[in-house]
Amino acid sequence: MPDRTDLLVVGAGPYAYAAAACAREHGIRTRVVGRPMGFWRDQMPAGMFLRSGPGWHLDAAAEHTLEAYFEHRGLRAEDHAPIPLPLYLEHAEWFREEKGIEVDERFVDALTASDDGFVATMADGSTISAEKVLAAPGIRAFVELPRWSEQLPPGQRAHTSDLVDFGGLAGARVVVVGGRQSAYEWAALLCDHGAASVDVVHRHAVPAFEAVRWAFVDPYVEQTLATRGWWRSLGPEARTSIGQEFWQAGRLTLEPWLLPRLRPDVVTSHPFCEVVDVVACDADDTGAHPAGLTLSDGTRLAADLVVLATGYRADITAVPYLAPLLDRLAVDEGFPHLSEGFETSVPGLFVTGFASTKDFGPFFGVTKGCPAAATLAVTEMLR
To answer: In this structure, is residue 221 part of a structural domain?
Structure first.
């Protein structure tokens, strides 16, 4: 007989932790499987900073918040702004411990439906059965790469989620493709580690480097909690307007603390440009063959490494363990169809996080949405 639980949470990131804590506090027997904060630990560089402040937390009960963690540690938020990634990870571990969440660090190979719920087959061949499952897949499965990047040798290209160690890039010529926060933050990290040159290529203007107040998101999340299906009840114009507001803050504006780290003798921006051709250059003095990139304005760049800050596109069908359920899972443009409580078309299967943004709005792709998503999903489970 397989292990049995009421709720199996697949994933161990912020949305998973929030949901598991909320479920446990409502008396739902819960198991969590996955690497604790795996994407944050493995696909983000230690020198990274958060864009959000201490007001964004994981706790639907509003007890073990990020601000509470600062108080617990005797820290002043103003002394840790922006919040460094290692400090946030310490907070997440504290939250997990305070909430009594135990994480089974095995991975799910396949999730199948059974007569009384679901069976998760683990990588070691063992199984866990559950009445309900909440899938909180990280964005690693949703990496988006331009087609031309396939022409680059594997050693000369890296998505930002794969480039977390900059130690060997002193003196390197690097081209960063993309122009949002990750592109310019990775450019800053490359400067910090002694890259010889960093060319940042993007199809839009150079973003503004200005402080952003994220408080505008709060009433939208509160409306989602107050009115089931609120986001979908809005007309197209209203959704577009809110989406543009979020885009302006999150994409068109970058953090001002980046600017002093972008050394003008190292970093060159190429706005309104894109890569139109890729060739192998002749060997340089070291015998290496850098990649040759031609931009749409005719500029030619030689690169020892091309960093693809090209973001992510939701595709729930790319989550490997969901493959056995895809014939029953309603999907639209990569997003699962979700109820007002994050339940998919497969009864008992819930999805939160980035893959829920089509039905709940862009703020549910960032950690701001964690407590609300947990509350709505658990409420649905108890109905």
So the answer is: no
Handedness of CA 268, 273, 275, 277 (dihedral sign): negative
Paired tokens of 208: 């503004």
For position 161, which CATH number holds?
A: 3.50.50.60
Q: How many domains does the chain have?
A: 2
Q: Are residues 21 and 40 in the same domain?
A: yes
pLDDT at 230 over 60: yes
Q: Which of 308, 330, 351 is the last residue of a domain?
A: 308
Residue appearing with tokens 């703020």: 363
Mean pLDDT value of segment 303-312: 97
Query: Which residues form the domain of 173?
Result: 147-210+255-308
pLDDT score of 102 more than 60 = yes
Domain match, 184 and 121 both: no
The verdict on whether omega for the bond into residue 86 sits within 30 degrees of 0, i.e. cis, is no
Residue 85 lies in a domain: yes
d(CA 28, CA 375): 13
Same domain, 103 and 194: no
CA distances (Å), origin 177, targets 42, 62, 97, 296: 21, 39, 39, 13
For 357-372, write each residue's pLDDT tens digit: 999 999 999 999 999 9
